[in-house]
Amino acid sequence: MKEQLLDLAKKRRSIYALGRNVDQTPDEIASLIKENIKWAPTPFNNQTTRAVILFGANHEKLWDIVAKRLKSEVPTEEAYQKTLNKINGFKAAFGTVMFYTDTDVVRRFENDFALYADNFADWSEQAQGNAQFAVWTSLAENGIGANLQHYNPLIDDEVREAFGIPAHWNLRAQLDFGSIEGPAGEKEFMDDADRFKVLK
Ligand SMILES: Cc1cc2nc3c(=O)[nH]c(=O)nc-3n(C[C@H](O)[C@H](O)[C@H](O)COP(=O)(O)O)c2cc1C
């Protein structure tokens, strides 16, 4: 069996110690991200996934927004310091992909394909998963580490304002990426017997 893709899937891990010592340019990385999203499958090829790719001051601005927004959500100053340390780790990375879903397109397909109307919202999330996995794995193939965060919906309004995001784009995830400055943690797996059935 060929296992090239499987080997790459194993290379994709959550890396939290990220830096800016990457060999590629922002243009090269942005192009890789765009191609992966374009080639990830979507239902009826409806292409609902959008991405905003942040580098430099824009990347830092995102994580400053997260830090500021979380201040009122965390109960104590001590807890906030911990949160801030975590967010500063994301800010120390090289860039961030913000993944969005275009809700106008989801709604259009719900209207146009009544038989499948109940599926399009779920399918847009599945399409997100396809795109996120593809981007994350392709970055890993190029020696770039990443981790996936979800500060939406807390940050949605500030981010929309800061980066001029259309109102009908719904923020689904933030993948921050950069040079790998520390290893991934151990990964544990549940029993295959509880997870898979192979019927021959
Ligand atoms: C849908 C989804 C949501 C996730 N959300 C977060 C998150 O909000 N914060 C985080 O640090 N990791 C998040 N992760 C990463 C998982 O915790 C991680 O993938 C899992 O523990 C397996 O570790 P690995 O990525 O190193 O293989 C998410 C992963 C997925 C697929």
Automatic annotation (TrEMBL):
Keyword field contains Cytoplasm: yes
Keywords for this protein: Cytoplasm, Oxidoreductase
Record localization: Cytoplasm
GO molecular function: oxidoreductase activity
Listed GO CC annotations: cytoplasm
Gene3D superfamilies: NADH Oxidase (3.40.109.10)
GO terms classed as biological process: cellular response to oxidative stress
Domain Nitroreductase, first and last residues per copy: 10-178
InterPro entries registered for this protein in UniProt: Frm2/Hbn1, Nitroreductase, Nitroreductase-like
Descriptive protein name: Nitroreductase family protein
Organism of provenance: Lentilactobacillus parafarraginis DSM 18390 = JCM 14109
